[in-house]
Amino acid sequence: GVDYDSLREASNIRYPDTGEEALDILLEFCKQGYGLVVFDSVAGLVPQMVDERESVGDSGQFAQVASLLAKSLPKIRKYAALGNTCILFINQIRANFNKFGMGPETESAC
């Protein structure tokens, strides 16, 4: 496990409300030259448009997340290279155990 209290004292942890805000924070960290930025979780990115509609989980959300990343990542990549920043994207996958303890199903954790 991670001791978040100790980590919080030594680092800059943020909890953005929207996907756009999260990617803006990521861009700012790259511009500031942070050595390592951990982005947790890609599955939890919720574009502002989806957040305002409160329709999380509809099939259009995935296309909007892809569009948001496609627009943001080229700029983030540029500043990450200039700032010598390593970005670690985490997309949590957890086992979905059925009542018999078998089954290869997994589910994305948001």
Detailed description of the structure:
- The structure is a single chain.
- The strands form 2 sheets. Strands 1-2 form a two-stranded parallel sheet. It has a two-stranded antiparallel ribbon with strand order 3-4.
- The longest helix has 24 residues, at 59-82.
- It has helices spanning 4-10, 19-31, 48-53, 59-82, and strands at 36-40, 86-90, 93-95, 106-108.
- By secondary structure, it is of the alpha+beta class.
- The relative contact order is 0.17.
- It has 4 helices and 4 strands; from the N terminus they run ααβααβββ.
- 45% of the residues lie in helices and 15% in strands.
- The two termini are 18 Å apart.
- The mean pLDDT is 80.
Could you give a short description of this structure?
The protein has 110 residues and is α+β, with helices and mostly antiparallel strands.
Q: Count all strands and give the number.
A: 4
Order of helices and strands: HHEHHEEE
Alpha-beta classification: alpha+beta
Residue-averaged pLDDT, rounded?
80
- In DSSP terms (H or I, runs of 4 or more residues), the helix count works out at 4
How much helix is in the residues?
Answer: 40-55%
Radius of gyration: 16 Å
Lateral arrangement of strands in the main beta sheet: 1-2
Shape descriptor reads: globular
Distance, first to last CA = 18 Å
Poorly predicted parts: none
Quote the beta fraction. Answer: 5-15%
Describe the largest sheet: 2 strands, parallel
